[in-house]
Amino acid sequence: MTQASDTSVLLSESPPLDLRLSVEELERTRERIVSFIESTVDDAGADGAVLGLSGGIDSTLTAYLAVEALGKNGLHGLTMPSEVNDPETMSDAERVADELDVEYDVVEIQPIAEQFFDAYPEGADDRMATGNVFVRTRAVLNYFVANAENRIVLGTGNRAEAATGYFTKFGDQAVDCNPIGNLYKMQVRQLAAHVGVPHDLVMQEPTAGMWAGQTDEEEMGVDYDTLDAILAAHVDGPLSKSATIRELGVTEGQIDAVVDRYEASAHKRSMPPAPEPLDH
After folding, report:
1. What is the full DSSP assignment across 108-173?
2. Does the global pTM surpass 0.85?
């Protein structure tokens, strides 16, 4: 198979592990995701989908593939800025909606979130707690619109985020499906470039937008190419820690940081637990 030649999706000249797909694999992945979105909507008896548009690459790629699956009338976008969001990023979200010619609404969530902060002022200075309020407010709005219009809610989570728990429980992963959930971040960028997403959006620095100046990589303590590599080789793959260090050239500390995140976030990847039933 011929490998996709576009190297612009790499964050560095020599990533620890090249996870890019071949041209054939890219097309098969594209077709599979488009078919998945279409069948998920059909199986639900829904009239389309709702998607939160952040301007980031994950939501942008999902939007492109959703329009391919459902048509422009099949997708309703929601842009939901708060005061901590970069206006330029929010502008990118509207730009994506305009380029795809899909219906979208801009809903300012700061006034909604302030109601929570006023109701429990003791938590208003907790950066993580308030950030999660913003994320969960968006989830409520996604489902409000979806319920009112008989649509499903599309998630934007990728494989790297799921494995490390880099999402808000009952927030950005309160969704009906994750079309790009099997793709590592490098593959998300590659597929986005393949389907025609503008280069500046493909390479935009990822952020969850939970507080001003937040970036994914700074919070996780490792860049995405390194994270992808450790996940693919060691967490999802068969290599031991020592073999991973030798093969990828990463440090033991980087591996430990990724594994710690994977293990600590296991609860996010499963249903809420219940006690064992009584013996009969």
Report:
1. --HHHHHHHHHH-GGGTT-HHHHHHHHHHHHHHHHHHHHHHHT-EEBP---HHHHHHT-S-TTTTT
2. yes
